[in-house]
Amino acid sequence: MFLISGPASRELGERVAKFLGVNVHPVEHRFFPDGESYIRVNLPLQDKHVIIIQTTTPNPDQKLMQLFMIAKTVKDYGAKKITAVVPYLSYSRQDKRFLEGEALTLDVVFNLLDASNVDNLIVFDSHNPDSLKTIEEKHNINVYELSAIPLLAKYFESKSYQGAFSLSPDKGAIRLAKIASDLLKGGYGYFEKVRDRKTGQITMIVKDFDVIGKKAIVFDDIISTGGTMAQAVAGLKSQGATKVGVSCTHALFMSGAEERIMNAGADYIIASDSVETAYSKVTIAESIAQKILELV
Ligand code: R5P
């Protein structure tokens, strides 16, 4: 095995290497004046199973391009197998055509991973596991989806959130609330979320949750602008929840997301280190290391 970290996952790469007891080889990376990435990988790679760790945010186009460049180069140098660990796989949310003429970006990304000779793909908490399965069947890539939700729930448990009500911000993510509730034992539910497909504007319908005098935690795969979470938090507080925790696997945290969520009344925000932020209190490194050991 030969472990490589891309520019987006240096720290995570080190953590995974520690669990595996191997060295990690960060790629050499810089930018050309026009913004193009320069990438150079460590050698030799002949006949090695190469593991590439590279999340794909911030700046998803650039981080994906770097991933494709690393994978193709590794193949050029004779790697016998390539496993890409991409905790946050950007462009996964456009997994169907909501409006005629839209680009099906999840499919585009898979075409490019395929063309870059990726054999295995490890991702965390994808936007829609069913779409991921459908796309996997169309490509020569074995996909392994892992979840950070049990780790996040465990963290909340250690902060006295045992018995908290677990929620997902929409029905599609109800599985996340259920996983958390299996551990926290406080029951689970979901919000109704309606998105205007033209403007992207979302509206959350607050249902009657039994949260009066209780703690509640909202679990989501992604926090981007924080708009979804802010509405969820405000809804729970208005219904009498004493404390509201907010948790996600992929903390994209665009344009003041944290402030938006805290201003809505959240008491706690935590995320995994799928994306490195000040809120990354939980590491997915051990889960990645275990999956790698199964694959090599
Ligand atoms: C969408 O369905 C995702 O699961 C998230 O709920 C969404 O992407 C969060 O976006 P934002 O933080 O911008 O509301």
Give a quick summary of the entry.
The chain is of the alpha/beta class and 296 residues long. The protein has helices at residues 10-20, 60-76, 105-115, 129-137, 149-161, 174-184, 227-238, 257-263, 285-295; strands at residues 2-5, 24-26, 28-31, 37-40, 49-53, 81-85, 120-124, 142-146, 165-168, 188-190, 192-195, 202-205, 215-223, 243-251, 268-272, 280-282. The strands form 4 sheets. Strands 2-1-5-6-7-8 form a 6-stranded parallel β-sheet, sandwiched between helices. Strands 10-9-13-14-15-16 form a 6-stranded parallel β-sheet, with helices on both faces.
Your description of this structure?
The protein has about 300 residues and is α/β, with parallel strands linked by helices. The chain has two domains: about 1-145 and about 285-295, Rossmann fold (3-Layer(aba) Sandwich); about 150-275, 3-Layer(aba) Sandwich (Rossmann fold). Helices cover about 35% and strands about 25% of the residues. The chain has helices spanning about 10-20, 60-75, 105-115, 130-135, 150-160, 175-185, 225-240, 255-265, 285-295, and strands at about 1-5, 25, 30, 35-40, 50-55, 80-85, 120-125, 140-145, 165-170, 190, 190-195, 200-205, 215-225, 245-250, 270, 280. The strands form four sheets. A six-stranded parallel β-sheet has the order 2-1-5-6-7-8, with helices on both faces. α3 links the parallel β6 (about 80-85) and β7. α1 (about 10-20) crosses α9 (about 285-295), α2 runs parallel beside α3 (about 105-115) and α5 (about 150-160) crosses α6 (about 175-185). The longest helix has 17 residues, at about 60-75. The model has no long low-confidence stretch (mean pLDDT about 95). The structure holds ribose-5-phosphate. The site of ribose-5-phosphate has 13 residues, from β13 and α7.
